[in-house]
Automatic annotation (TrEMBL):
Residues 131-157 are annotated as: Disordered. Residues 108-150 form the Zinc finger CGNR domain. InterPro entries: ABATE, ABATE_dom_sf, Znf_CGNR. This is Zinc finger CGNR domain-containing protein. It comes from Sphingomonas panacis. SUPFAM superfamilies: Jann2411-like. Coiled coil: none annotated. It comes from the Bacteria.
Amino acid sequence: MATPQDFTRWLRQASLLDLDDREALEADLVDARALRDALYRAALAIVNGEMPVPADIDGINDLAQGTPPRPQWVNGEVVHVARDGVRAALALLAGDAVGTLADAQAGRVRLCPECRMMFVDKSPAGKRRWCSSASGCGNRAKVRDHRARKAQEGSAR
């Protein structure tokens, strides 16, 4: 995310910000980057069997204390309403991260060996190794492994 507009666009694509909400400001972008970086470091520590550093936990917790969107019943539908959509989205992201990293799912946080992206392994067996098939990481690794096996079989003949 290079600009506040990039952050606004990402929030809207993720359905975390309505079109009538204000655009993200530079301060929001700074907080979003700080949250992203703290989450990455915390998840990496967990993957490595360590505790995240207190400063990262504090930063995540501070943003999670913001006012998340509140569900409202409007015309028979549930809509999420926030006074400040950008800040509410940051609070929601931080709060969800706390819930993921601090509970049983923490043992399923993985680091993709191909792209270094963090992901939560939700496979039944808990043995997923790559971030997603759609990204191509798993496919590239499988092709590489297949070619290595074929080359080894060819040299063994």
